[in-house]
Amino acid sequence: MNVVEFLASLAKKDIRLWLEGENLRFSAPEGAFTPDIKEKVVANKPAIIEFLRQARKLNETAIEPVSRDQPLVTSFGQQRLWILDQLNPHDVTYNMSSALRIKGALEVAVLDKVLRELVKRHESLRTCFDDRDGEPVQIVLPADKWSLS
After folding, report:
1. Mind spelling out the 3-state secondary structure of 10-67?
2. Which of 2, 35, 38, 76 reaches 20 to 30 Å from 144, CA-CA?
3. Domains, the chain
4. CA pair distance 123, 149, nearest whole angstrom
5. Are the CB atoms for 71 and 137 separated by under 8 Å?
6. What's the whole-model pTM score?
């Protein structure tokens, strides 16, 4: 049984192993961490620790941000929708609209501030598409350009 299979068998018994610094730790329901399991963990401890180190490294691998100075390529789904829009301009088939009825006084300044923060956090709300040499590209607009008014 390899390390992955062993850890999977422990997980089925709700036994969890993890690294805390360089120390191997565990949690288990009462009676689940039997002497037999303890013996197997001790025997495989170096391999388990190495496996958990590698898993930690994979989890820490960050996605590198892409520069927003240039237009971004589109996904296949975005290309599909762009092509459909080219074939049938101004079609609202894929648009989802809704309306809200607000009771009471509306604090426009607060609403503006909240929406600005939302737009600032979510690039998809600031993304538009442009045609560059017959191909769609994404252009992410600056957050500070958005305004409620």
Report:
1. HHHCCCEEEEECCEEEEECCCCCCCHHHHHHHHHCHHHHHHHHHHHHHHHHCCCCCCC
2. 76
3. 3-60 (1.10.10), 64-88+105-149 (no CATH)
4. 20
5. yes
6. 0.53
